[in-house]
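Database export, one record per block. Field names are fixed; values are copied verbatim from the stored entry.
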Amino acid sequence: MRTDPTARSSVSASPPPDRRYPARLRLLIIDASREESSRLRRLLATVLPEVEISEYDPEQQGAPRADFDWSEYDAVLLDHLLTPGETGLDWLARYARRPAFPPTILLSGVGDDYAAARAIKLGAADYLRKQDIDASRLGGLIAEVVEDARAAQAVDTTVREERGQPHLEILEHLHLQDTSPGLAKQGSIGYRFVRLIGQGSSSRVYLAERTTDGVTLVLKVIDVRGVQDTQTIERFMREAEIVSGIRSPYVVRFYDYGLTQNYGYIAMEFFTRGDLKQRIEHGVSRSDAMLYLRHIALGLHAIHAEGIVHRDLKPGNIMFRADDSLALADFGISKRLNQTSDLTNLGSVIGTPNYLSPEQAMGQPVDHRADLYSAGVMLFEMLTGRKPYRAENASALVYQHVHADVPRLPDELRMYQPLVARLLAKHPDDRTQTAAALVDAIDRLRTR
């Protein structure tokens, strides 16, 4: 049964100036509640330009028939509770594998790891708790999953042309055999690849399921056959070594890593509640800002105790679990302080410009205090909703990190200014010296 064409309408609105949305979208809302469908429509009308929305009532219209044309839509918002006898998970199991099935976001009033992981395994592009929904978050997530789907389609097309079959099919049931001494445990480690969720110049990141016990995880895979530079393999395996040695609730959980003749892989924790970047975009309270900073500091204490500097600490690398606990993630450019050789070029700038310490910006050697500077940038951003330094290009931004005065917080936040000033000090010797000292400073502020 097709969607009732009379239920379709077009609305236009101007999106926020700092967010880019696809020029035109066709969305399908599947929800038994007319009130909830109307609420979603109103929210989307404020952020998505020229969005074309169709509504589908599962109680009135029943399950879609075999000839339902899913290709009409760029994305689907699917409610978890459809009818007394069926859920959104049931519909995903039934329809997600069909040709041209659009990226689907499961919306649920139940926030737990099982529902999120099950939805992703069944083919959902993402999962969002209803209590977390606002216009910006929903619009941004729709734009993201649509763009990811289009990019994945382009990648698959390219791979078909180059290899004759899609990359995902090649890896569908890849069994990774560890052949290198000291890398993970010996034996055959099997993973089922659910979907591609990201890619870089030499690696791909998949949502995957461990075949031995069904654990949902994130699997980062590098095709060593296509890598000419041996340093790329060294960087990849160094990331695995760094993550594997950390035992802290405030650091991403590590499962496994290894090398085969054709692939290197790292298996890591799957997070269901997004990252700190998303939370800053929607506003962080003062109490939450201090709580998050304290947990970030505890994570830094754990990695610094192992002689590791993160070097790319930023909101996008602070991830949240279903229980709302956070963890430091993405150690792709981290290094051990006692390494005699750094795999980056001497004098090169490593890190993300908005969160770069002055010594990183100048290509100088760094220690754990560079991470504390980045934590200070995130504190300023959590408290104010904006970054401490802003510029039109990366060079000007780097210059400000090195030379500009420490920015002032608004008067109503002045109690936090001394902490911000210590963290953002230009010279490492003038900063808060350790993550443990940062925890102590936060505790003193929280008791005032």
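Remark 1: The longest helix spans residues 135-163.
Remark 2: The radius of gyration is 23 Å.
End of record.
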